[in-house]
Amino acid sequence: MRLLTDGTDTNRVLGFCLTMLSQYGENWPPTEEALAQEFVEWLGFRSVLTRNALKELCQAKGVSLSFDSLPQDIRGCNCSFQDKKEIVIAERELAPFADSHTLLHEFRELLEHEFVAVGHATIGAKDSLEVQAEIFAMACRIEAGQKDLPVFLEMASKVEKKWVRYLGYALVGVFGLACLFGCIYMRQLEEIGSEAYR
Ligand SMILES: [Zn+2]
Predict the structure, then answer these.
(1) pLDDT tens digit string along 93-113?
(2) Which of 36, 112, 151, 152 is the most buried (most CB within 10 A)?
(3) Residue 124 is part of which domain span?
(4) Contact by Cβ (8 Å): 168, 62
(5) How far, in Å, from the CA of 144 to the mean position of ligand 1?
């Protein structure tokens, strides 16, 4: 008997994982950067997104995203039951772009869940999924930043007045640096943020 469906119509995350498997199966596992690159494209992730926009992106992939108060040292959590997938992110954002970072981290864990389910784990028994999810989140944000930077520069170049245009370029530059800094030091920034709330 042949199955009529491989389950990807009700489980889009699984669909993404199977696509990865068909593309990188011979060289499994893919690098975290390659996975991030494909994922950013698939999800439509951008470097600047509101909470509502993040919710919509997740919704489109069958993942329900919500923001709720969580214990202080927990930034997010995810759960996967049959075809239902859910991510909850801490209501209080402790550093700029922390929402996106946490979402990507939790999503990476959901992906691994599917990879394991189809018998193709991407990380070894002694590697930590927590660490891998952090690397993934960082790689996705750098990838999205690289995609968005030319768009911002293009926007700045369209400004008529010269001094406003230069100001625009300067802002894009500062924003780019801040983003890169945030990508790398996210956890430290959050620590500082949570210290401030104590
Ligand atoms: Zn985690």
Answers:
(1) 878 889 999 999 999 999 999
(2) 36
(3) 12-197
(4) no
(5) 21
